[in-house]
Design brief:
Layout: H1 4-12, E1 30-31, E2 37-41, H2 46-51, H3 58-69, E3 78-81, H4 95-112, E4 116-120, H5 122-128, H6 135-138, E5 143-145, E6 148-153, H7 156-161, H8 166-184
Parallel strand pairs: 2-3, 2-4, 4-6
Antiparallel strand pairs: 1-3, 5-6
The structure holds uracil.
Length: 186
């Protein structure tokens, strides 16, 4: 069984799909490997590609603020993405790219063993929970699969474009906090 460092190093040499051709860095993911709470976005943008770190642009800044509002910091959670290389021009990752990249995320989940996974945005929810998820309808609900509770929430980049949706996100984050506290008190 690999540890996260070994997996990161394997991923950094990955050429399983064509996204490797344009990447500056892979964005493997970061945070606390002992956490109960994992966040999964869609894929790196230009800032993330440049720095090799997830959610470091404007959307990341908003995510940090939302975490702070429920008394969490990045040191307490783990953040990664569905695909580890930047899709050119920030287009959606294609199905074949997602399929090729998914083993890395599966390994990360296996190693970290989070109890809650928050999917950020529609693509992450469809990949992690099920194809038929409608993010605006199904966000803020808990979908239990095996030992993991999945909570779909809106993507912070969407919130930047649609500030009216922030109140929905706040409900989701309160649910995340409540669910985490319940799990910890068991
Ligand atoms: N959007 C994502 O989905 N992931 C990132 O890491 C940054 C922006």
């Amino acid at each position: 069984m690999y540890d996260l460092n070994q997996l990161n190093s394997i991923c950094s040499k990955c050429n399983r799909c064509r996204l490797y051709e344009n990447r500056t860095n892979i964005v493997f993911g970061e945070g606390n490997p002992q956490t109960d709470l994992m966040f999964v976005g869609e894929g790196p943008g230009s800032n993330e590609d440049r720095l090799g770190r997830p959610f470091v642009g404007k959307a990341g800044h908003l995510l940090d603020k939302m975490l702070k509002a429920i008394d969490l910091t990045r040191d307490e959670i783990y953040i990664t993405n569905i695909v580890k290389c930047r899709p050119p021009g920030n287009r959606n990752p294609q199905e074949s790219e997602i399929e090729k990249c998914l083993p890395y995320l599966r390994w990360q989940v296996k190693i970290i063993q989070p109890k809650i996974i928050v999917s950020l945005g529609s693509i992450s929810a469809k990949v992690l929970i099920n194809e038929d998820i409608k993010i605006t309808k199904d966000r803020g609900r808990i979908f239990t699969k095996g030992k993991i509770k999945f909570i779909p929430s809106l993507h912070p980049a969407y919130l930047l474009r649609n500030p009216n949706a922030k109140k929905d996100s706040w409900e989701d984050f309160k649910l995340i906090s409540k669910t985490l506290k319940e799990l910890r008190s068991r």
